[in-house]
Amino acid sequence: MKIECIKTYHLRCHLEQPFGFSQWYYNQRNVLIVQVIADNGESGWGECYGPADVIQAAVEKFYAPRLINGACMSTDALWHTMWRASLDFARGGVMTAAMSGIDMALWDLRGKALGQSVSQLMGGRLREQVPCYATGMYFLDLPEDQLLTHLVDEAKGYVDEGFRAMKIKVGKNPEFDIALIRAMRKAFPQMILAADSNHAYDLCEATKVAQVLDDCDYAWFEEPLSPEHSAQFRQLSDKCITPIATGECEQTRFGFQRLLKEGGVDIVQADLGYCGGPSEALKIRTLASSMGLNMIPHVWGTQFNLASACHFLATAYHEPGRREEKPLFLEYDRTENPLRDVIFTKQVDVSNGIATVPTDPGLGVEINENAMRSYVFAETETK
Ligand code: MG
User: What homologous superfamily does CATH list for 3-115+371-382?
Assistant: First the structure.
């Protein structure tokens, strides 16, 4: 099987209700979808996390021409062909995001060709179901007292849907964040709660917030600090017991080695649509494991990234592991996004907060190309 054609689709939708986090507000969602078509007509699909228009150019202009006629099954060889082609001037960023979506599509294609799911290709499932945590509680443009009430109400909806874990956004300002952390714990004494600042704090602020997370028994503190200040993670970690999670802004085994060697990171959160793809994610997991850490992917996108992360967690071995295993929760974004929901005819099944790992060949999810059409903002084709 040879690669005959690589297509990309920049999908865009406008949101009915804009929402924000510590860095900016969204009023639309964009994603770059990659389709790799083999000479037998079979297709593999993937997606890239990051600015879709820029990544689209990287796939079309740079990587796709180098991959045409490549052997579809040789995912690792193709990855290193792409890596060496761009190493001199792009050891990360949007170029690596472009590689990630192509690599994800190649894993989907290889699975379909072999009649095996991606989790079988990754070495075999250790579990058929993966518990999810609801990602939501983004900021709305409301007075803070109304916002706090709104966020607690939103969280009640996830509890009613059966989730037993969820993640809130912090990083608006420390006073509001601390009030929100306490209000959520008071409203949901039994829930597994996590907080994500998206690198909004300096070390002093992060330390203050971490002490409140300790008091309120949160499960992790996500991106408390900038990934550019990796030495500060150790300093923060020395002052709190809440596990520190980070990695959605980091890429490749090389980048993660630099981030993790300083210490202070407890949970590794590479995104399979950004870190270099499933091929590189497996290497990052090996690196994390060698340091005694678990990798739990970041997921923000469509069913392709969700399914990739679900297969990845189905195959995850715990560090250190025990008979009554600690759950590794799949991130399940609950914000408005038709690009994740309505254009897929086959999705990852999530019921009562638990995902069933797809068993169909490849990623095991299916996009409806006709439904996708109404969201295509720009597309490319390389033969
Ligand atoms: Mg995050």
Answer: Enolase-like, N-terminal domain (3.30.390.10)
